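Risk register update: the risk of archive-format incompatibility is retired. Evidence:
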Amino acid sequence: MSAVFCGEQDPAGNGSDMMGEDSLATPPDDRYNLLHDNCARPLYHNGANSVTISAWAEVWDYLGGTSYRAFVADQNGEKTLFAFLDHNIIDLDLKQGLMALIELAESALGCARIVMCVDRDVSRSQAQAVLKSFRWVGFDLATLDFLSTDLDVTSEKWLFLSMDV
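Archived output:
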């Protein structure tokens, strides 16, 4: 992901500067650079194919007891909402929050797709249950190849599930 969002040409780095996005304080501290010191604004320059982070949000589902941290990646006007599911919320009721994310992406954010980033630290049984549920909704396993032209973008920390909206 660091290759896509920060223009790092070595995809074997220690992770993207945006990967801390799922654990930042809410609301963000203005004294802390949201995107860390070495990457003022995530940007992957590849001629006409540049990727920027245009927004971020945290969606709270008080009924289900979950919160989703998310950001919008914009590549030449085509927006993708990335939302994180870490191991702490994987067993909770995700339905209402997920429906709110889909509606938010579709309407207010104008996204063409949603990518759910599922923590790979979840147990095998949890992963199978989440994959089954998300595939039923319309998500499929994905890579981030649609954002990069010549890089193989996979993550050791996150499993990507994508759906067009």
